[in-house]
Amino acid sequence: MTIVPDTKDWTWVLDRPCAECGLDTRALDRQAVPAMIRANATDWRAVLTGSGDVRQRPAPDVWSPLEYGCHVRDVFRRYDERLRLMLVEDDPEFPNWDQDATAVAEHYTDQDPAEVAAQLAEAAEQIAATFDGVTGEQWQRTGGRSDGARFTIDTLARYLVHDVIHHIDDVSAG
Question: Which pTM value belongs to this model?
Answer without folding.
Answer: 0.91
